[in-house]
């Protein structure tokens, strides 16, 4: 293309000829998107990763709903399942589900007492060993990985092992989520 056709007036002419007739659709979709995304963007903050999950969750939720409603191609059910899995993992990662699971009342309960200005904690229920037995692969990963051994400082208490298992399970969920997105994100569109 010669320099003459790259001038602003030729760009304006091409835009008026090819784009202007469709602007009413773009404006309609733009306003709908502003409405859908308003509260997500309004609540967004730059200091925490949970907002990153909220933005991604909103986009995948919208794509999932579109595909589930329209069923426009063969195999869309599988893609909707993958999106559901991604949304579930995002929720669990955002809420630190895996890192906090062993603190659940099913495994561990503690009672706080204040005596003479001192705060003391007393374990009322300590069944962390059940949590450790529930996830043997995470336990093996923690006990065999040198990066976790330095956190134990030679003391392999159930509490430390459970805490490190929660961190390992959280990291594994992150790896699974990003692999899922890496391999499938391009099939999430119509």
What pattern of helices and strands is seen along the backbone? HHHHHEEHHHH
Termini separation (Å)?
33 Å
Q: How many β-strand runs?
A: 2
Beta strand %: 5-15%
Q: Could you say which overall geometry the principal axes of the C-alpha atoms support?
A: elongated
Runs with pLDDT <50, length 5+?
Answer: none
State the helix count: 9
Q: What is the helical fraction, as a range of percent?
A: 55-70%
- Let me know the largest β-sheet: 2 strands, antiparallel
SSE inventory with pairings:
Blueprint: H1 8-19, H2 23-43, H3 50-70, H4 76-94, H5 97-100, E1 108-115, E2 118-126, H6 128-134, H7 136-144, H8 146-152, H9 158-184
Antiparallel strand pairs: 1-2
General description of the model:
The chain has 190 residues and is mostly helical. The chain has two domains: 3-95, no CATH class; 100-171, no CATH class. 67% of the residues lie in helices and 9% in strands. It has helices spanning 8-19, 23-43, 50-70, 76-94, 97-100, 128-134, 136-144, 146-152, 158-184; strands at 108-115, 118-126. A two-stranded antiparallel ribbon has the order 1-2.
